């Protein structure tokens, strides 16, 4: 059930509550608690506001408690523990961050490899950028080297980001010395 704040024009509730409103007025604000989206009524339609101040910004930093990790071709790097997880949006079972809010995010990873490996960001089930000339990837060509990559990503609610191997054979990384992080910029 939606909760109204008298004299402010603000209402908070589920997306279904916003859809059920029968007489919204111009300037009315509605924050959907299930989608974490803010909507403004312009007099004829609800418009999602992309430029509002968040009381928190989804952010995470994940690593692994496994010393030596073998990563197979196209598999996610098993970042299975979090040091930071504002909003509880990092899944330590699927090793992915799931966006609770649509917006522009910054992601990065540092991987310390035992053997040659090429890694990249995946958005849902495909590479974040399919054009290999612009796809941010990390080739580690010598054992015992670390590599770092960052990338911006425009995400919708429930988009998932993982770090995956692009190498056609299995490779090993030092999980406890590798990290994956990200946060909402705007």
Compile the SSE list and pairings:
Blueprint: E1 3-5, E2 10-13, H1 15-20, E3 29-32, E4 37-41, E5 46-49, E6 59-63, E7 68-71, E8 81-86, E9 90-91, E10 96-98, E11 103-112, E12 117-123, E13 126-127, E14 137-140, E15 146-155, E16 160-165, E17 171-174, E18 179-184
Overall mean pLDDT stands at 80
Order of helices and strands: EEHEEEEEEEEEEEEEEEE
Number of domains: 2
Judged by helices, strands and strand pairing, the structural class is mainly beta
In percent terms, what proportion of residues is strand? over 45%
Which CATH top level class of the largest domain fits?
Mainly Beta
Radius of gyration: 20 Å
Dominant shape: elongated
CATH architectural label of the largest domain = Sandwich
Q: List segments where confidence is low: pLDDT < 50 over at least 5 consecutive residues.
A: 131-135
Question: Biggest sheet, in brief?
Answer: 6 strands, antiparallel
Number of helices: 1
CATH topology heading of the largest domain: Jelly Rolls
Give a quick rundown of the structure:
This protein has one helix spanning 15-20; strands spanning 3-5, 10-13, 29-32, 37-41, 46-49, 59-63, 68-71, 81-86, 90-91, 96-98, 103-112, 117-123, 126-127, 137-140, 146-155, 160-165, 171-174, 179-184. With 186 residues, it is mainly β.
Short key terms for the protein model shown above:
186 residues; mainly beta; Jelly Rolls; 2 domains; 6-stranded antiparallel beta sheet; 5-stranded mixed beta sheet; 1 helix; 18 strands
């Amino acid at each position: 059930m939606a909760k109204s704040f008298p004299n402010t024009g603000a209402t908070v509730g589920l997306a279904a509550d916003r859809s059920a409103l029968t007489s919204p007025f111009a300037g009315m604000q509605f924050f959907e608690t299930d989608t974490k989206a803010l909507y403004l009524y312009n007099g004829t339609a609800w418009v999602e506001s992309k430029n509002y101040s968040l009381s928190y910004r989804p952010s995470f930093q994940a690593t692994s408690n496994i010393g030596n990790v073998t990563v197979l071709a196209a598999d996610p790097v098993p970042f299975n523990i979090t040091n930071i997880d504002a909003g509880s949006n990092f899944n330590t079972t699927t090793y992915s961050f799931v966006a609770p809010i649509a917006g522009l995010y910054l992601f990065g990873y540092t991987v310390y490899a035992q053997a040659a490996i090429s890694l990249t960001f995946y958005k849902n089930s495909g590479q974040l950028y399919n054009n290999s000339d612009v796809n941010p990837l990390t080739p580690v060509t010598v054992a015992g080297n670390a590599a770092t990559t960052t990338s911006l990503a425009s995400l919708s609610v429930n988009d998932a980001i993982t770090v995956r191997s692009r190498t056609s054979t299995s490779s090993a990384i030092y999980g406890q010395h590798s990290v994956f992080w990200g946060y909402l910029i705007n």
